[in-house]
Design goal:
554 residues; alpha+beta; elongated
């Protein structure tokens, strides 16, 4: 290669540098070639003494801290190199520290992790607030939206926590370890020596470094595989959120003014898009614009916070009614059954009706026809009668949708029961037998027996209604109420359970029940379930236990 061709190619390779810097390098190398030619060396030989022009240009760019094309074309290799360099820096840093300094280093890391962990508190508060907002909806929509809400917030916190930790760790512990290089031209006089040093460094890496690079590449591959799986899930999330946004637009057009809820949905959709784009760029080895991503996340979270605040106000203005509207009629499916003294009815019976004019048992399935086609499926097995049912078609009638939209415009949310309520109608004798057999069945050790649930109440007064000359009663009367309830209720409780109980404090009541459905009304809870223990609690009000139900018994 001739001098002119060599210098032209070198100039092209160094075009990313400033023009003055390139001119200095070309002038230096041109002078060195001239010196060689004057000493009797052939022009081609003088040029070839520099070796590969690609390696030479890479070293020159490295001296100016500029990444070459080769480095850009191998992002996984670059990532592996950075990880290995970080490990080397950390090992080098720790090797120079005394045992006391290492202990201090570990303590600082633990404190940093603890501080980052504290920032999970507002995330947990947002998750809890989202639960309160989304549980306005009926099941299973409330669970679906809440799961999505929780996933987005927890994932966002995890990603930001990792970024913050790496940033602080690098700035505090690794940045000062970097070898500072002066910005200088790699002159022809030390070019050959530099090339030899590079070869020696490459040879000194050995098998251990090669294995480390291989392990890092495997880790990167695994991370990309996980990112692809998450992208797949986020894709379904975005499709679902797009459908929700269309529904929000539909409600808004029809006059439903829940702007906080709409803002929350928009921010969740934007957060999903941001995380999708971050992971998409990671999989394709594209560089994310840190500033744009940070601004986008900040705007989305601000929008999310504002939406949650407005939604909280809108929730307080909404009336929640634990029953369908009075103008919605139920439909009934009725089956007539025979029974004897050993017949056991297994199912979620909600009520009993006495009718002494009939000999058999009438089983009524009462349900709200929201578009649901329901059928009974009563099966018999010896003395057991299983009161089952099937939902054949589930959809939402237009009339019910119009009713719901009208209710939302009035800030009212009704509970439309999808499951039927089962009512037993029989004569007094048969109902007594049914009750006794069911109680024996659910209390037997071979079946799903009782379960416990806990609710917290504030005890105002303990009353003993017996006269002074009367025999001491086993029952006392307690005036109490539940948190956020203004109604005071008087309930009977066994005297032995109230030993050590003091008026004016919160107590956790543990109930034992044989029911699958627990009414939240205080009087019904104490009437239909057994109080097994009363324990004073010092829990903050927002952490008190208020369990609503147990699992089904059949």
């Amino acid at each position: 290669m001739k001098k002119r061709e060599f210098l032209a190619k070198l100039r092209k390779k160094l075009s990313v540098l400033e023009e003055s810097e390139v001119d200095d390098i070309i002038k230096e190398y041109g002078g060195y070639i001239d010196e060689k030619i004057e000493s009797g060396v052939a022009e081609e030989e003088a040029v070839s003494s520099f070796g590969s022009i690609d390696e030479l240009s890479a070293e020159l760019l490295s001296a100016y801290k500029v990444k070459g094309k080769e480095e850009k074309e191998d992002p996984i290799g670059n990532f592996a190199s950075k990880v290995l360099q970080t490990i080397d820096k950390l090992i080098d840093t720790l090797s120079k520290k005394t045992p006391k300094e290492i202990i201090r280093f570990v303590i600082e890391i633990l404190i940093l992790i603890a501080i980052i962990g504290l920032f999970h508190i507002p995330v947990a508060m947002l998750v809890s607030l989202g639960k309160d907002v989304f549980y306005i909806l009926s099941s299973p929509l409330n669970r679906i939206f809440f799961t999505i809400w929780r996933f987005v917030l927890e994932f966002a916190y995890f990603v930001l926590a990792i970024i913050v930790f790496i940033r602080i760790f690098d700035t505090r512990y690794l940045k000062n370890v970097e070898v500072k290089k002066e910005k200088k031209v790699l002159t022809p006089k030390n070019a050959e020596r530099k090339s030899k040093e590079i070869v020696e460094v490459k040879q000194s890496k050995g098998a251990i470094s090669t294995i480390s690079e291989f392990i890092v590449k495997i880790c990167v591959f695994f991370l990309k595989f996980m990112a692809i799986c998450i992208l797949f899930c986020i894709s379904f999330y975005l499709i679902g959120m797009a459908i929700v946004l269309v529904l929000c637009i539909y409600l808004l057009v029809h006059g439903v003014m829940y702007f906080g809820f709409y803002l929350v949905m928009i921010s969740l959709f934007l957060l999903g898009l941001i995380f999708f784009w971050i992971l998409f760029n990671f999989v394709l080895d594209r560089k994310n614009n840190g500033v744009k991503m940070f601004v986008s996340l900040a705007v989305s979270f601000v929008l999310l916070g504002v939406g949650c605040g407005i939604a909280a106000i809108e929730v307080t203005e909404t009336e929640f009614i634990n029953s369908p509207p009075s103008d919605v009629a139920t439909e009934t499916l009725t089956e007539e059954l025979t029974m004897d003294e050993d017949t056991i009815f297994i199912g979620n019976i909600s009520d009993y009706v006495v009718d002494n004019s009939i000999e058999n048992v009438l089983v009524e399935y009462r349900y709200y026809p929201l578009g649901t086609t329901m059928s009974t499926r009563i099966t018999k097995d010896d003395d057991y009668v299983y009161l089952n049912w099937d939902l054949e078609n589930i959809y939402l009638k237009g009339e019910f949708l119009d009713h719901m939209i009208r209710d939302l415009r009035e800030k009212k949310v009704y509970n439309y029961y999808i499951e039927p309520t089962i009512v037993i109608t029989a004569n007094e004798k048969n109902i007594e037998v049914i009750r006794e057999n069911r109680q024996k069945y659910y209390q037997s050790g071979t079946n799903h027996t009782s379960c416990d649930f806990v609710r917290t109440y504030f005890i105002y007064t303990i009353i003993d209604r017996e006269e002074d000359d009367a025999e001491e009663s086993d029952t006392l009367y307690v005036v109490l109420n539940e948190f956020q309830s203004e109604n005071l209720v008087t309930v009977p409780i066994k005297r032995e359970l109230l030993e050590g109980v003091t008026e004016g404090y919160y107590y956790e009541f543990t109930f034992n029940t044989y029911q699958s459905y627990i009414d939240t009304d205080i009087e019904n809870i104490f009437e239909e379930n057994e109080v097994v223990s009363i324990k004073k609690t010092d829990r903050p009000i927002d952490e008190q236990i208020h369990e609503d139900s147990c699992s089904a018994f059949y």
